[in-house]
Structures are given as structure tokens and as C-alpha cells.
Amino acid sequence: MTLTFGVIGAGRIGQLHISYLQTHKDVKIKWISDLNCDKMEEWIAQAGIENKTKDHRDIINDPEVDAIIICSPTDTHVDIIKEASAQGKHIFCEKPISMSLEEAEEAVEAVKKSNIKLQMGFNRRFDKNFKQLHSILSEGELGQIQTLRITSRDPEPPPIEYIKRSGGLFMDMTIHDFDMARYLMQSEIVEVYASGDALVNPEIAEYDDIDTALITLKFENGSIAMIENCRRSVYGYDQRIEILGDNGAIDVGNEQSSTLNYHRVDGIRRDSPPYFFLERYSDAYKVEMNDFIDAILNDTDVLCSIEDGYKAQQIALKCQESLKTNQPQKL
User: Fold this and answer.
1) What is the pLDDT of residues 308-330, one digit of tens each?
2) Which residues pair with 227 in a beta bridge?
3) Which of these, 84, 9, 62, lies nearest to 40 by C-alpha position?
4) CA distance between the termini of the chain
5) What pLDDT band is residue 6 in, cutting at 50, 70 and 90?
6) What DSSP string describes 8-48?
7) Are 37 and 54 in contact (CB under 8 A)?
8) Which of 239, 316, 306 is closest to 278 using CA atoms?
9) Which intervals hold domain Gfo/Idh/MocA-like oxidoreductase N-terminal (predicted)?
10) Strand 224-230 and strand 238-245: pairing?
11) Which of 152, 150, 129 is nearest to 238 (CA)?
12) Which one of 63, 90, 100, 105 is at 20 to 30 Å from 309 when CA atoms are compared?
């Protein structure tokens, strides 16, 4: 069976998903929707996509389309989810669902009422290292977990124009870490405490945002987690996890292009981590899309549901509240 796809939003992440979809034997990309599609005619032709439009409804209303990929700006997500659900289209949606919890609830309800699959784009769940860690924890090999520590640092801050519309550090960046914490601990977060400031670029503070943060999470099962974020890491994209339990500890380090260590009189040299998320999670993006397609074809559950997206967004908003009040916030 061949699935017919339409992609809504042809920016960096939309083009990435298209490049993977093109290689899948069970997929045909019929449509692409983007407000700037007139400026992308050469790329669209090279990608072999039949139809382009500025109105995503052209995709949703096409009876031949089985599934859509939502990579458009966040403020469009909820309306698209509701419209596509009503038309019976399966949905892959990049995070977050919305900037508003009330709107996100509307999207959740729309999906529940339909008979579709919706997978959220939390690609880190599909990373081979984190999947193996999840498997070990699921089997109980570490016993009771005491602490989880997640380090996530970008190579450099995004432009201020991006900051203005990002929804803030917690909604834009840390939301991946909130999802990873829930995924690994397999327990719900019941309390958050967040502190942070604009320590890398003070201009970010002018837009009521931060670039550096420490977040403490308390889980229903009694475990504790710490997330450290920074918008700048001069040595590359820093993605590490450490977890401590009754029977030992497990850490997942940064991936490198090689394990070569060059020992010289002036010191030891080794490869830096990948520059950014596109390089670090290249394989995970492929796996998450393959899993979405398999869930449609085999009528199985998606690994990362809209409920997972809702809970990560809820945690992000509670962290914003904690930062403003300097108080822990319960969920």
C-alpha cells in the first residue's frame, strides 16, 4: 500500500522530513503548502512534488491524501490539527502543539473524536542511545531510580527575530527535555521549579525570555530530575544524560564522528560533538518518520502521542510560571 502525503510548511525541518519521505518505498508526496512556495519552485520541482499551494486546506480537502506533516508556525498547528482530524487525515506534528494550553486541549479532543494517528515530533525518543536506555529502565535493571540529569546546550543562540516568536526557552528548547524525562522515568511529573536568566545575550531578556536555565522536576514515583539548558556551547551541541539507581548508574555521552583520541605533547585532541541538532539527530528523524508510517500501515499506536505533546507543553508553561514567581509549581 502506498500512502499519499502532504507537507505543510517547507522551512528547514519541513525540507528535512521531505528528504526522508522521498526515500520511503510506501510513500508518495503529492502536495506541499507554504506561504513562500512561489519562491521555491525550483526546489519543489527537484523534489518531484506534484502540487504546491499557499493554502493548507487544499491538502486537507484532497481525498487522495492519507497523512499530513505539520511543520508550519506554532500558531497554525491547532487549526490544522482540527481540520485534518475532521477529514480523517493522519498527522505528524512538530512541537509544540500550541502556545496555549486551552488551544492544545481543543486539539487533543479533536484527535480523540477521530480515528486517526497523530504523532508528535519529539525526535529524541527515536535516538538509538536513548531508546536503549529506555529499554534498560523498562526492564528494571537499575532498580529504583533516584536521580536523572539532562544536559542540553545549543551551539549558539538563535537570532533575536526567532526569540521573539519562539514561545520562550522552555517551550522552544526545554520541551524536548521535558518529554525525554517523562519517557525515561515512565512516571508523571508532579512539581517543577525553574530558575534562569539571559546570561549569554542580555538582549534576550528584553523579550521576557532567558538563555540559561536550571529546572528541578519531582516525579510521582519519588524520583528527582535536573535539567540544565544553555543557548550557547562553544564546543558544539551538548546532549548528555545520566541516571542513578539502586543498582548503579548509566550515562549517555555526546556522539562524535570518531572515537579517535590524538595524544600529543601539547595535549589530547578528540572530535567535538556534532554542531547542532540536524547533525546529531539525523538518524532519529528517519526512525521517527518510519515509525509514523508503520503505525498507519499496521494500525499500531504511535510512540509519541498528542497526549505526550500536551503534557510536555503543560510542564513548559508551569516552568514559565515558576520562573516568574520564583516558586515551585505543582502539576
Assistant:
1) 999 999 999 999 999 999 999 99
2) 150, 215
3) 9
4) 43
5) very high
6) E--SHHHHHHHHHHTT-TTEEEEEEE-TTGGGGHHHHHHHT
7) yes
8) 239
9) 4-122
10) unpaired
11) 152
12) 63
Number of helices (H) and strands (E) in the chain: give both, helices first. 12, 15
The 10s digit of each residue's pLDDT in 41-55 is 888 888 889 899 999
CA dist list (Å): 73 to 76, 179, 254:
6, 20, 30
Sign of the torsion formed by the C-alpha atoms of 212, 278, 136 and 309: positive
Residue 257, pLDDT > 80, answer no
Looking at the chain, the whole-number percentage of residues with pLDDT higher than 70 is: 100
- The strand pair at 3-8 and 67-70 is best described as parallel
Q: Which amino acid is at 158?
A: P
Grid coordinates standing for 237?
551541541
Beta strands at 145-153 and 238-245: parallel, antiparallel or unpaired: antiparallel
Indicate if the pLDDT at residue 259 is higher than 80: no
Other CB atoms within a 10 A radius of the CB of residue 100 amount to 15
Amino acid present at 307: E
The candidate with the shortest Cα–Cα distance to 127, out of 295, 303, 248, is 303
Give Cα 287 to chain centroid, integer Å.
13
- Which helix (H) or strand (E) segment is 226 a member of? strand 224-230
Q: What is the pLDDT of residue 272?
A: 80
User: What is the per-residue pLDDT across 70-114, written as a single tens digit (0 to 9) for each?
Assistant: 999 999 999 999 999 999 999 999 999 999 999 999 999 999 999
pLDDT at 13: 93
- Reading the block at residue 241, the C-alpha cell is 544524560
Q: What is the mean pLDDT of residues 237-256?
A: 94
List domains and CATH numbers for the chain. Answer: 3-116 (3.40.50.720), 125-280+311-330 (3.30.360.10)
Determine the 3-state secondary structure of 207 from DSSP. helix
